[in-house]
Amino acid sequence: MQFERSDIPDLLLITPKRIGDDRGWFSETFREDRFRAEAGDVSFVQHNQSYSRAMGTVRGLHFQLAPKAQGKLVRCPRGRILDVAVDLRSSSPTYGRHHAVELSAENGRQLWIPPGFAHGFCTLVEDCEIAYLVTDYYSHEHDRGLNWRDPDLQIDWPVDEADAVTSPKDRQLPMLRDLGRVFD
Asked: Which class of enzymes does this protein belong to (predicted)?
């Protein structure tokens, strides 16, 4: 398993090793001791999976407020996505900056997004499945989001706004300048 630090502190790109032969391959996608050595004292309590049928589906940018803030370990076991994390920690020197990475079934990469970040993705092909482990349970009361179209974020989404497949909820999310302080 290879761990790479991103340009935003605390985000980790993880590439599991694949051992293959003529039957296919085997990969250890999570190993607690190695993960904790890189990410710190993290425990997962829930495993989520989503399916997006259409290419150009955008989900996010989502987060949960404290005390139910979630860290997420995200991977794409089917298809290809552009995965995006936005730093919402107001005391961070990278506040408001984002990190985007392609996750796919082919590359096997995973992105560790600690609490304090908004998370979203855009599907690059049809029929994508996204699986992620989270550090706290879903809480409707603490569920929040940030508008994926916010021009101040300068995210180079691979789909035009008019062509994006989104939910009504995600289209109504606030811009960063209207969000207020959500994480210290």
From this structure: isomerase
Reported confidence tier of residue 9, pLDDT bands at 50, 70, 90: confident
pLDDT of residue 174: 97
User: Is residue 72 within a helix (H) or strand (E), and if so which, with residue range?
Assistant: strand 72-78
Q: With 0-12 CB in 10 A as exposed, 13-18 as middle and 19+ as buried, what is 131?
A: middle
Single out the catalytic residue among 62, 98, 99, 119.
62
Catalytically annotated residue among 98, 99, 119, 132: 132
CA angle 44, 182, 9 (to 5 degrees): 60
Domain boundaries, the chain: 2-175
Check pLDDT > 90 for residue 57: yes
**62 catalytic per annotation:** yes
pLDDT, averaged across the chain: 97
Q: What is the mean pLDDT of residues 141-152?
A: 97
CA dist 47 and 95 (Å) reads: 28
Q: Domain 2-175 is in which class?
A: mainly beta
